[in-house]
Amino acid sequence: xxxxxxxxxxxxxxxxxxxxxxxxxxxxxxxxxxxxxxxxxxxxxxxxxxxxxxxxxxxxxxxxxxxxxxxxxxxxxxxxxxxxxxxxxxxxxxxxxxxxxxxxxxxxxxxxxxxxxxxxxxxxxxxxxxxxxxxxxxxxxxxxxxxxxxxxxxxxxxxxxxxxxxxxxxxxxxxxxxxxxxxxxxxxxxxxxxxxxxxxxxxxxxxxxxxxxxxxxxxxxxxxxxxxxxxxxxxxxxxxxxxxxxxxxxxxxxxxxxxxxxxxxxxxxxxxxxxxxxxxxxxxxxxxxxxxxxxxxxxxxxxxxxxxxxxxxxxxxxxxxxxxxxxxxxxxxxxxxxxxxxxxxxxxxxxxxxxxxxxxxxxxxxxxxxxxxxxxxxxxxxxxxxxxxxxxxxxxxxxxxxxxxxx
Length: 407
Ligand SMILES: Cc1ncc(C[n+]2csc(CCOP(=O)(O)OP(=O)(O)O)c2C)c(N)n1
Ligand SMILES: [Mg+2]
Hints:
Elements: H1 24-34, E1 44-45, H2 60-86, H3 101-108, E2 122-124, H4 130-136, H5 140-147, E3 171-173, H6 180-195, E4 201-206, H7 213-224, E5 229-235, E6 238-239, E7 242-243, H8 254-259, E8 264-268, H9 272-287, E9 293-298, H10 332-339, H11 343-353, H12 359-380
Parallel strand pairs: 1-8, 2-3, 2-4, 4-5, 5-9, 8-9
Antiparallel strand pairs: 6-7
Helix pairs in contact: 2-3, 2-4, 2-11, 2-12, 3-4, 3-9, 5-12, 6-7
The structure holds thiamine diphosphate and magnesium ion.
């Protein structure tokens, strides 16, 4: 290869081989051994374990908790989808998260989820919230009740899917609008900084958010103000029924964040250990005053954008062409290919390989989770329905309101 002046130049990595001493993993190992501060210069976290080894250092019970959380999200949805498809009395609905479970689970496992509200980390979600909610630790039976408009639900039955919220675990909530959640989350991050708190704010947003102005103003402000904000972009390739390349010029949306000077990571969103690795790194940096991080998790959703058209009771995912539903916006083979890299299977295999549990114990855990979710639905769907008046709760101020003083 020649440089601008026509001189022959050779690059040590021309053959594509990076010796371990020069690779990021080798560098991290060296830095860990010498205790040197690690300054991050590259941005890719791949399934080969290229970034960090935080997950490997976790005790078995924390890893098993992650596996359990992935399963809870999966079985909550399988059960809810079956209700939607098979029970004419079921009123609930959801934007399903199946296929993406490892993202919420890996990120929330790196957060502080227990303790007083003034100390826990806060999560802001989107229109696809139930996975984020479960990973943050909400009470599943009351969430099930909420999603079916029951008066004893998590939010009294007036929030349903699109506005579920449980501040007691730092799950600030779902948001039906594409755009604002990152701005609101950065407001919390600003408050943490202003108060001198070491809390962290996390926002989950889809690839579609790139096209909203909020995406760009959030990242700019987060960098300028050095906010403890972690922006998790769940790139599941589609916004509603359009491929993300229709509205975003970047193959890796993380490249956009790098333009704002924010450390950005692209991670395999199907592997919970890799998601945890990058999340832990981001949380540590934010707590230490190092500012924001952008994480782009490459992932995929198994169902339609909304609800379960094209899906069959008892089956995972929606396939095929259904003239009454919009399931033909993506190739069926694409769905099946992503299902080959299922987050449940990947987590299970890694934990078996690491000797955390064997296949028998993994199966028992799955049975325990199925029973827990079945119980949650039994309780939730036996609760009283909310009344039409409940729908007006928190819309108007109740009682008398003092006349506003001007001047
Ligand atoms: C401001 C605004 N415009 C449009 C919509 C309609 N809408 C709901 S979800 C969605 C697509 C979101 O795609 P993405 O951000 O990739 O998230 P995903 O659904 O893939 O999880 C759109 C356009 C909306 N809710 N808000
Ligand atoms: Mg999307």
